[in-house]
Structure formats: structure tokens, C-alpha cells
């Protein structure tokens, strides 16, 4: 299993480490903990990013036809 740290995820998605910590507190990004360490599965982050892209591309009237 490939995993990434907060620092690695921040660099991977182009966000600050502070923002990643904030997103984990809000449960807005998939993660898991081992003790006090926050870790992310690479595959899960890639899936999450694809989902975010799709959600951001939908038009507000999609599904209303």
C-alpha cells in the first residue's frame, strides 16, 4: 500500500500543509491515523481528486431535464 504524509499530499495537490490539516479536521479529505500521524492512501487521494473534478464540472441544472 502506498501512503503519503500531510506534507506529501500538500505537495501532490498543490495546497498548504495547514490547509490539509484543516481539511482532515473537517473530515473533508479521506485520511487515517496511526497514533498521532495523519496518513493518506495514494489510491484513495487520486479517487477523491477525480470525484472533486466531476463534482466541480457539473452544471447546476444537470439532472433537471
UniProtKB/TrEMBL annotation:
InterPro entries: DNA-bd_dom_put_sf (IPR009061), HTH_17 (IPR041657), SinI_DNA-bd (IPR010093). Transmembrane segments: none annotated. Residues 4-52 form the Helix-turn-helix domain. This is Helix-turn-helix domain-containing protein.
Amino acid at each position: 500500500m502506498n501512503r503519503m504524509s500531510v506534507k506529501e499530499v500538500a505537495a501532490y495537490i498543490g495546497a498548504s500543509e495547514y490547509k490539509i490539516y484543516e481539511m482532515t479536521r473537517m473530515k473533508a479529505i479521506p485520511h487515517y491515523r496511526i497514533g498521532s500521524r495523519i496518513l493518506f492512501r495514494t489510491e484513495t487521494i487520486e479517487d477523491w481528486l477525480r470525484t472533486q473534478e466531476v463534482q466541480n464540472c457539473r452544471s447546476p441544472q444537470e439532472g433537471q431535464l
